[in-house]
Amino acid sequence: MQMKRIISTALLASMTLSMNAVHVRAEEEAPAEKQSGYVLMDIPYDKFYEAEGNPDVDAVSSATLNKPRTGTLAGGSYHVNADGTDISGVIYPVYVEDMAAIAQETQITDESSVTITVRNRGQETTTVYEGKDALFESASYSYYILDEAPAYYKVLSGADGAYTFSEVKGEAQTVEGVTAEVKTGARHADVEISLSNTAGIEKGQRVNAVVLTLSDGSHVGLRHIANLWRATEIGWDADEFALGNRSITNIRYITETAVIDYPVDINLGGYVLMDIPYDKFYAAELSADDPAVDAVSSATLNKPRTGTLAGGSYHVNSDGSDITGVIYPVYVEDMTSILNETQITDESSVTITVTNRGKETTTVYEGKDALFESPSYSYYKLSEAPA
């Protein structure tokens, strides 16, 4: 009996040790608790705008090597290349559910800094970007850990570079009364729009992103320097995108501290007086069975260039060998579609000398009248809609 009690006690001690060992291993193998947090992150344009309605927004390939690296001009953006050849995307607050998902990305800290020297308008300037500002020139998905939850942010999903981002979280406000001055064929871009009465956004303010809503419900994301200048000026070239007969119904500004919607009604259409070839003019006026209307090939070289005889027409050849078509008012749905054509302005003029019945006459055709001798599809902008 004594021997049995000794064996039972030893067996019990062994079982206890074994159970403790299993418990210790279970604690060691238990997954660590996820650490969530908010960061300021470099987000590529296409990833940023994907949830805002336009995923096809490329990085800016810039030949202006100083502007992308100038914080006062490209604030709210970041670039990867230190040579100034790109603007890669947007710096914006992000909520990360599991910080381990971005552990392999570049972390910017308060000790980080980058020194950038640029030359604008002949003046060289050196700026040191420290702490979170060093995100301005860093790799995509670089991040800086924030101490507090921001009011506006995106939510990151995915890991190891395969990221997606939600739409901007935070309450948007609507501001009415914005006015727009639209120029086509302007100095910076084919379309330039200067906005006024933009309460909440001031000229020169740092802006992270701008989203245009079009009348068909589609969206366009704008990029710094290429499409966004001095906060309140926006624009684009005709080869970037064309509006056609669509108008802009809303302009959304996104900053780190606000999301502001500006309802607008901006139409890029306009009325012009245009040189239209005969066949193009008559195509919609005749049936399919009617013969085509060709240009006039004239042997009477003076009459085609005499306004009192050929008024309402135009000719391309200055030798008087043709009458090409009709001068007529036209509504153009998107003015960028005719930017490659010859624009006639109030400063335009053409001098024509003709001899009719032995009498030589010289006439200067100025302003819109210069369309009389000009290439097909030349146009003169009208200030009012014609009847």
Give a brief rundown of this model.
The protein is mostly beta strands and 387 residues long. 12% of the residues lie in helices and 36% in strands. The strands form 8 sheets. Strands 1, 3, 5, 8, 9 and 10 form a 6-stranded mixed beta sheet that branches.
Q: What this model shows, in words?
A:
By secondary structure, the protein is mainly beta. It has three domains: 37-165, no CATH class; 173-266, Sandwich (Immunoglobulin-like), CATH 2.60.40; 270-381, no CATH class. The protein has five helices and 28 strands. The protein has helices at residues 2-29, 45-50, 71-74, 278-282, 307-310, and strands spanning 37-44, 60-61, 77-78, 86-87, 89-96, 113-120, 123-130, 143-145, 154-159, 162-165, 173-174, 179-184, 191-196, 209-214, 219-222, 228-229, 233-236, 248-254, 259-266, 270-277, 296-297, 313-314, 322-323, 325-332, 343-344, 349-356, 359-366, 379-381. Strands 1, 3, 5, 8, 9 and 10 form a six-stranded mixed sheet that branches. The protein has a five-stranded mixed sheet with strand order 11-19-18-14-15, with no helix packed on it. A hairpin with a 4-residue loop joins strand 18 (248-254) and strand 19.
